[in-house]
């Protein structure tokens, strides 16, 4: 007798009550254990994310949250990516300012993680029709090594497109599997796909498979109704989600394209070609990029996911007794096209970095769910031990990193955001004690002064990224960038003298800044060294993996 029938059976057949109650108890116990495991995994994820060391890329993505909307992207701030991630971090900073500038941005990334994991669980439950898969798919993502390192642990746009791409493609598949597709679901699918592209330009590759597939799926629906019920809502949601992109593109197309496209295809590549020795193992050539992609796609829990897909493909024809083909063939073609396009796009940028190769993971999750759905029940039952083994392997792979995250929760004062906030406070207090003149702080690590509410130069508001490409810039690009190179420092500082310089994070690039400080008679002063009893600043509060901050106080500018 099924569990759904158990309540009625217990009232009419006393002897059956014990086994049924025991079955329900076992179900509740399994549910409680699964909930406890999920809570521990999420807690470990949160702790690891908050304790993960500051990364240079965050000096580009995080500062706009403190500067918008007073300063505009592209016009007033150098920003070489599409705009949605900047506005997302700004929104979280407004809503959760108590977390600080960096903390609120990392909280946004954690929420993106929750959206991604919930999407994977939904895919297993609704698309795969399997409770086991609904548990395994998010487990595979939360234990995925590339996602537990810089790609998913820093406040950048690397992880942000994945949940929107997964939900967008997943909703499209779900609705087109129905005889009567739901317009609301397809509207949301189009919205999610456009938001993914608004978070990271490379995520645009997820749009064409769904946009083309909408004209053909579901195949049983007449074309006129398909246009009305599938194409129009999907495209309407896509247009709605793309409005921020359209606004920036139409307002100043040349500047937008110079930042989003021109930077990556010109000076960025030239810089790395000239500085390859500074980054051992840099994946510049196609062969090196393929090797890095292989390490990302075919290692750890990503390899387990790929093996699950292979098992589903292998088992499907061997266990089939159907006379008619299973549902979802067209949807598999859509997801396959999205996977191929995402993989190809990942390999295009040179040099390659690990974070470029994570977008296909979102498609692999959906493919696993849909292929599992097409298996007959006896085949699925035969593969359940495989799913259990895969879960144990994933737990073993993710345990060290997530365990570190759990341990970090015991020391919230050592979270990276807390240390950056203390570093900013130490910087502000050091300048106040020294009687610093009014003026911005010149630095390639703007998160510290911005965390403390101190002004910075707009030319360095997003760190070193515009400054370091100055020697490789052509004039047609330079005129679109709000930036300063080494040759521009004297004029910049003459027009708006700095109150101080915070150096020590990029010694080679900072040489012209240090030369200015010494020539100007700037005085190095201590910061973050606990000058008074009871203060919270410590020696490491202005330190990162790139160096320890050195604060130079500038003398007041001479009045004309």
Task: Please describe the topology of this protein.
Blueprint lengths: L5 H7 L4 H35 L6 H4 L2 H4 L16 H12 L4 H28 L3 H12 L7 H4 L7 H16 L6 H17 L7 H7 L9 H19 L1 H9 L1 H13 L1 H8 L11 H12 L2 H19 L10 H19 L12 H14 L3 H32 L7 H18 L7 E3 L3 H5 L23 H4 L10 H7 L4 E4 L3 H14 L2 E3 L17 E2 L2 E2 L1 E4 L7
Parallel strand pairs: 1-2
Antiparallel strand pairs: 2-6, 3-6, 4-5
Could you provide a short overview of the structure?
With 560 residues, this protein is mostly helical. The protein has 25 helices and six strands. A four-stranded mixed sheet has the order 1-2-6-3, sandwiched between helices. It has a two-stranded antiparallel ribbon with strand order 4-5.
Provide a descriptive summary of the structure in words.
By secondary structure, the chain is mostly helical. It contains 25 helices and six strands. A four-stranded mixed beta sheet has the order 1-2-6-3, sandwiched between helices. A two-stranded antiparallel ribbon has the order 4-5. α7 runs parallel beside α20 (377-408) and α9 (161-176) runs parallel beside α19 (360-373). The longest helix is centred in the first third of the chain and has 35 residues, at 17-51.
């Amino acid at each position: 007798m099924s569990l759904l029938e158990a309540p009625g059976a217990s009232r009419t057949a006393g002897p059956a009550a014990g086994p049924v109650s025991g079955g329900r108890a076992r179900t509740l116990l399994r549910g409680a254990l699964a909930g406890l495991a999920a809570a521990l995994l999420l807690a470990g994820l949160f702790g690891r994310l908050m304790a993960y060391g500051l990364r240079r890329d965050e000096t580009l993505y995080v500062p706009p949250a403190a500067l918008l909307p007073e300063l505009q992207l592209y016009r007033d701030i150098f920003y070489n990516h599409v705009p949605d991630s900047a506005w997302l971090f700004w929104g979280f900073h407004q809503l959760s300012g108590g977390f600080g500038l960096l903390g609120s941005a990392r909280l946004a990334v954690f929420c993106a993680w929750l959206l991604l994991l919930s999407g994977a669980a939904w895919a297993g439950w609704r698309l795969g029709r399997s409770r086991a898969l609904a548990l395994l798919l998010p487990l595979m993502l939360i234990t995925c090594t590339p996602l537990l390192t810089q790609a998913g642990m820093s406040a950048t746009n690397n992880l942000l497109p994945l949940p929107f791409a997964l939900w967008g493609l997943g909703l499209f598949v779900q609705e087109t599997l129905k005889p009567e597709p739901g317009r609301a679901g397809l509207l949301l699918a189009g919205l999610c796909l456009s938001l993914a592209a608004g978070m990271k330009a490379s995520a645009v590759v997820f749009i064409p498979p769904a946009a083309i597939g909408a004209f053909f799926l579901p195949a049983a629906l007449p074309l006129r109704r398909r246009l009305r019920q599938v194409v129009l809502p999907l495209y309407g949601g896509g247009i709605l989600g793309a409005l921020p992109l359209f606004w920036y593109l139409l307002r100043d197309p040349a500047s937008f394209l110079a930042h989003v496209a021109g930077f990556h295809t010109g000076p960025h590549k030239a810089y790395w070609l000239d500085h390859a020795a500074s980054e051992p193992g840099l994946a510049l050539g196609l062969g090196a990029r393929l090797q890095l992609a292989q390490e990302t796609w075919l290692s750890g829990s990503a390899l387990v996911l790929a093996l699950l897909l292979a098992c589903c493909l292998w088992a499907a024809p061997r266990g089939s007794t159907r006379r008619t083909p299973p549902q979802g063939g067209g949807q598999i073609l859509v997801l396959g096209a999205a996977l191929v396009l995402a993989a190809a796009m990942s390999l295009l940028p040179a040099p390659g970095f690990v974070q470029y190769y994570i977008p296909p993971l979102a498609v692999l999750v959906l493919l696993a769910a849909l292929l599992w759905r097409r298996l007959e029940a006896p085949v699925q039952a035969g593969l359940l031990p495989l799913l259990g083994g895969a879960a144990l392997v994933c737990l073993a792979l993710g345990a060290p990193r997530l365990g570190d995250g759990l341990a970090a929760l015991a020391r919230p004062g050592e979270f990276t955001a807390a240390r950056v906030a203390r570093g900013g406070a130490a910087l502000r207090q050091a300048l106040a004690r020294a009687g610093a003149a009014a003026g911005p702080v010149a630095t390639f690590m703007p998160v510290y002064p911005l965390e403390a509410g101190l002004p910075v130069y707009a030319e360095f508001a997003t760190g070193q990224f515009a400054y370091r490409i100055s020697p490789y810039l052509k004039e047609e690009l330079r005129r679109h960038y709000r930036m300063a190179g080494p040759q521009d420092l004297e004029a910049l500082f003459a027009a708006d003298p700095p109150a101080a310089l915070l150096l020590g994070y990029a010694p080679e690039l900072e040489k012209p800044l240090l030369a200015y400080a010494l020539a100007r008679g700037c005085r190095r002063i201590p910061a973050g060294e606990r000058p008074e009893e009871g203060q919270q600043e410590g020696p490491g509060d202005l330190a990162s993996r790139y160096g320890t901050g050195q604060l130079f106080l500038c003398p007041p500018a001479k009045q004309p």
